[in-house]
């Protein structure tokens, strides 16, 4: 009675409840649900094909399309009885229907025990091993121990993986009475199918030579694959040419060229899934050709998506730099590029891990491979990594910027660029020096451009023949000049008679200029020194002449040490 109730429940659920699921509570219900669901589906398919072939229509009617949808729902119910966890996610959708029909072909050719003899849920409670095999076969229904389908009895992953082998071994055997004969072969070589673009009648009317099998695919399917790939390649080439032509128009051709690369990579990312859909759903590839083609195309898609992320991050960084009118080698520009590369790296690793899982490669294998590869790269490029870390310290701490005048050891010049490996300095001899970033952060950097005030210090050598009161007036006049100058720091300066020299009186002139620009500093320094020289001329102050210099050579009356020519 319980068995009849379960059977009636399955049939009623299939007929009236579109949300019904396969009963997988025991090996008995799993096997019964699989067999009965497909038997009913096959009967519906035969009725649809008979009606369709007896008509003059190229395509199915609306009512027939609805019936086909119901059949597909039944196949989905049967597919739910298979544990597909070990199939690559990229293939599970396309391979699952083949596996369902292969299993049905095997079951239709072997003797099945009575359903009452198959253990139910109560019988399996007392079993030590929660699995049951069809007598005389390796077809096993096992309890799922963990995961989203834990507690269900499904055809085991090992069984699902070996179904092509089982089918090859039994396909020469005759069908059992009332079996659903030929469904798998019809689906396998049926081409575009009942609800596809190409009419099913055309597929049936193909000449015999077009149905000859090469690598388990009929000849017509190979022609179809070539046409699809050629069409995709031609469309891709047109898109690439259009993107290249767009990149050459207008200003900013370099940035446009990079955006054009992003455009045709995105076009490739759109074309690949379309090609896969046509090959799988319309041409209906099968066997090893299906697996190789699908996995290869999805592998290319994963690599192209990773490349697209890197290209897009680079182009976005350069676009931001250009829009903000930042210097190409400045720290802010490098930080924008670094941020984009960091985001791209995280996204790329995520894409590679997820893509590998879709292709059937465990995530831990990919992560372990990336980890081992990262360690190998780190050991081989430790100096480069040290320079990279040094560059990051420079970018975040900002001890100097592009355009700053700095001194590093014996090197002095203007910073031209700050890269991820080195900093380039243009010396005052117009040579270009590259200093590794690791060395730069471990040495003293004197940033002349960061001075809030620029010191000016010189000593005037006044002749001993100058009267003391005139010297005092000269010192006072220089102080007044410093106080009135718009760029001098008024809170501190030193103007005084400082010492008695070997050949003249030493007057110290020491003050600060409140300027932030080197060119303004030089101009103001010259202006003040010229004003001091004019004061000396007005007050008839004679500068001392060094003993080694002939008096005729110092026509201006100034000391070469104080104002070099």
Key attributes of the depicted protein:
disordered N terminus; alpha+beta; disordered C terminus; SH3 type barrels; 13 strands; five-stranded antiparallel β-sheet; 565 residues; elongated
Mean pLDDT over all positions: 81
What does the largest sheet look like? 5 strands, antiparallel
What gyration radius follows from the Cα positions, in whole Å?
43 Å
| Order of the strands making up the biggest sheet | 9-8-7-6-10
Integer tally of domains: 4
Number of extended strands = 13
Instruction: State the end-to-end distance.
Output: 119 Å
Q: What share of residues is helical?
A: 55-70%
Any idea what the shape is?
elongated
Can you tell me the residue ranges where pLDDT is under 50 for at least 5 consecutive residues?
Answer: 1-15, 552-565
Q: State the order of secondary-structure elements, H for helix, E for strand.
A: HHHHHEEEHHHEEHHHHHHEEEEHEEHEEH
Structural class: alpha+beta
Query: What is the strand content?
Result: 5-15%
Annotation field: number of helices:
17
Task: Give me a quick take on this structure.
The chain is α+β, with helices and mostly antiparallel strands.
Please give a structural write-up:
The protein is of the alpha+beta class. It has four domains: 204 residues, no CATH class; 164 residues; 59 residues, SH3 type barrels (Roll); 102 residues, Alpha-Beta Plaits (2-Layer Sandwich), CATH 3.30.70. It has 17 helices and 13 strands. The strands form four sheets. A five-stranded antiparallel β-sheet has the order 9-8-7-6-10. The chain has a three-stranded antiparallel β-sheet with strand order 1-2-3. It is elongated, with a radius of gyration of 43 Å.
């Amino acid at each position: 009675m319980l068995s009849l109730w379960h059977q009636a429940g399955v049939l009623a659920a299939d007929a009236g409840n579109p949300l019904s699921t396969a009963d997988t509570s025991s090996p008995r219900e799993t096997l019964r649900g699989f067999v009965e669901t497909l038997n009913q589906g096959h009967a519906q398919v035969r009725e649809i094909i008979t009606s369709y072939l007896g008509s003059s229509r190229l395509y199915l009617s609306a009512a027939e399309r609805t019936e086909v949808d119901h059949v597909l729902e039944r196949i989905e119910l049967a597919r739910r009885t298979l544990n597909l966890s070990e199939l690559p996610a990229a293939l599970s959708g396309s391979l699952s229907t083949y596996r369902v029909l292969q299993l049905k072909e095997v079951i239709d050719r072997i003797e099945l025990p009575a359903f009452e003899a198959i253990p139910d849920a109560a019988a399996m409670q007392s079993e030590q091993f929660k699995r049951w095999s069809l007598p005389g076969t390796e077809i096993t229904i096992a309890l799922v121990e963990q995961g989203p389908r834990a507690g269900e009895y499904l055809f085991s992953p090992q069984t699902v993986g070996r179904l092509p082998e089982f089918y090859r071994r039994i396909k020469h055997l005759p069908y059992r009475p009332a079996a659903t004969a030929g469904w798998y072969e019809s689906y396998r070589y049926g081409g575009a199918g009942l609800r596809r673009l190409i009419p099913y009648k055309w597929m049936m009317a193909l000449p015999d030579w077009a149905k000859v099998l090469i690598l388990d695919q009929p000849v017509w399917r190979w022609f179809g694959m070539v046409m699809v790939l050629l069409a995709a390649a031609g469309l891709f080439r047109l898109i690439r040419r259009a993107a290249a032509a767009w990149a050459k128009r207008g200003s900013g051709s370099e940035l446009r060229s990079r955006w054009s690369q992003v455009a045709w990579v995105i076009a490739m990312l759109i074309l690949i899934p379309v090609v896969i859909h046509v090959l799988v759903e319309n041409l209906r590839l099968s066997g090893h050709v299906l697996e190789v083609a699908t996995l290869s195309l999805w592998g290319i898609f994963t690599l192209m998506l990773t490349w697209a992320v890197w290209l897009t991050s680079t182009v976005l960084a350069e676009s931001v730099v250009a829009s903000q009118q930042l210097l190409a080698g400045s720290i802010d520009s490098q930080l924008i590029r670094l941020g984009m590369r960091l985001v791209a790296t995280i996204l790329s690793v995520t894409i590679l891990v997820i893509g590998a899982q879709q292709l059937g490669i465990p995530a831990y294998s990919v992560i372990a491979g990336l980890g081992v590869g990262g360690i190998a790269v780190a050991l081989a490029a430790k100096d480069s990594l040290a320079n990279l870390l040094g560059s990051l310290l420079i970018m975040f701490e900002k001890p100097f910027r592009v355009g700053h005048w700095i001194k590093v050891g014996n090197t002095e010049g203007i910073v031209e660029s700050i890269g991820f490996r080195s900093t380039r300095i243009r010396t005052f001899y117009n040579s270009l020096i590259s200093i590794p970033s690791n060395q730069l952060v471990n040495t003293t950097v004197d940033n002349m451009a960061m001075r809030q005030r620029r010191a000016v210090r010189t000593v005037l050598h006044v002749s001993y023949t100058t009267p003391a009161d005139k010297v005092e007036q000269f010192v006072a006049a220089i102080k007044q000049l410093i106080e009135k100058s718009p760029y001098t720091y008024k809170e501190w300066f030193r103007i005084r008679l400082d010492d008695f020299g070997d050949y003249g009186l030493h007057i110290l002139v020491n003050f600060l200029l409140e300027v932030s620009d080197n060119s303004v500093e030089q101009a103001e320094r010259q202006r003040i020194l010229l004003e001091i020289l004019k004061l000396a001329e007005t007050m008839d102050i004679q500068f001392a002449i060094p003993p080694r210099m002939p008096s005729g050579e110092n026509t201006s009356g100034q000391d070469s040490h104080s104002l070099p020519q």
